[in-house]
Amino acid sequence: MSCSARPGKLERIFVIRTCVDRLAGDGNHTIADEMDEVAVKGLHRINLRNNNGDPDEAILEIRYRKLRVLPPIGKQKRYPALTLTVIHAEERMTPKNRKKIEWKLITNLPVSSRTEAIEKLEWYALRWKIEVFHKILKSRCKAEESKLRTAQRLTNLISLFCILSWRVFWMTMLNRSAPNAPPIRTLTATEIGVLDRLVKDRPKARRKTLSHYLIKVARLGGYLARASDPPPGNTVMWRGLSRLTDIALGVMLSCRSAHLQSSLAGELRQTCAVELGVRFYSAGVSRDSSLRYCAGAQGGAERSAYGSSSSTRYARTNASSVCACSAASR
Length: 330
What we know:
With 330 residues, the protein is an alpha+beta fold. The protein has helices at 31-35, 114-125, 127-140, 151-177, 189-198, 210-220, 234-282, 287-304, 311-329, and strands at 2-6, 9-13, 15-17, 23-24, 29-30, 42-49, 55-69, 82-91, 102-107.
């Protein structure tokens, strides 16, 4: 069910499955009585799994009609009758290893062709994926446990949680639908590098594929990856991705820290050179002597900036660095 806003009006658009045979028309018959008179408008083929988990296929007969649907008898004085479209999709033959598919949908959207009826059936077929998405949103992101009290803050928080939940669900499904895709499709270069160093490869594992790295993510979350195990689910993917994100963040911070240390060392060397150079130049050292001294001690200057143990070498080498700058400026 969804809502669409129009000027001065909030309209609800829905596609729901019904299990109650409601009164229709003038109230002397039900929806089932009218739908029995409707001819089959087309066929629709869907893919699913049987009770053993094996892939299967079902062929559905589609019938649809716009009807006047009445509310229950005890509520007819409070609620008006609605003009809705009823869609019935029923499997032709009874399968052996699963229940027969029989969908009875009601919608307030117009359905005037087989294509539009199939569109509504495909929407309904996504119901389980929608349920799984909301499970991640509530059970993993803990969206219902938020202590925020303003609508704007809740909206911002839930928007962020929706992105996280979508990524977990997307990675779980992509591992099953496109296992041989390149890993860069879902993971960053840093995440791939961390997984290569952190999670050891299993024997006979498929290398450098998306499934190979997503199973590594699931193993971080407790997935055992045994030969008889089903594909990893959302729970282990959530745990693994949480750990991977923390570790990748630590790697990024350490790289930035190393770069910062290198930059600070260069700045320290320059600062010491400026201070000591002024004193060295004021002592009357000639330009040629300064350049020769600096050339011999330049290597020591770089080492001293990282904390040389000899204070004498530190002073001499940093002074030599500045002499080069001072001589060049003259």
